[in-house]
Each structure stands twice: as C-alpha cells, then as structure tokens.
User: What shape does this take?
Amino acid sequence: MKEDARKTKAAELEKKMADFQKQGGDAEKQLQQYQEQQLAPLFQKLEGAVKAVAQQEKLDMVLDKRNAGLLYMDPKMDITDKVRSKFGG
Assistant: This one.
C-alpha cells in the first residue's frame, strides 16, 4: 500500500508542477501582451523622431548603438540628443 500511496502522491505533485508551469507561462504571455500594448505608442513616437532627424541630417541609415554590434562610432555621428529633443518636444 505504501508504494501505491507514493505513486499517487508523485502523480499529484507532477500535476501541480505542470499546472504551476502553465500558470507561469500564461502570466508571462499576458505580461508580454500588456507591455507590447503599452509600449507600442512610445515606439511609434520614437520611430517618428528618429525618421525626422535622419531626414533632417540626410542620413541613409540609423543604427541602434545598443543592439547593432557597433564597436566604434565617431561621437559626431551620434544623433541621440537630437532624437531625444524631437521625441520629447
């Protein structure tokens, strides 16, 4: 009888773990959707500010220096402050 009780308890624990993992995944998915909804307008505004500065400066491309694998850039080429002023203003 002890073996049956142990197997039953193990099955219950496995089910609880699976339920917990599913709830965690669902919560993570909901958080991601919420963040996307909340950040979408900001990203649209940022994209507009970047585009405006790029056109004003006659730039062919703008790289995100945090994620582009950029190892060096002449500081004179950095338009971050200009984009911030367009974004905030």
User: Anything to note?
Assistant: The longest helix spans residues 2-56. The chain has a mean pLDDT of 87. The helical segments are 2-56, 80-88.
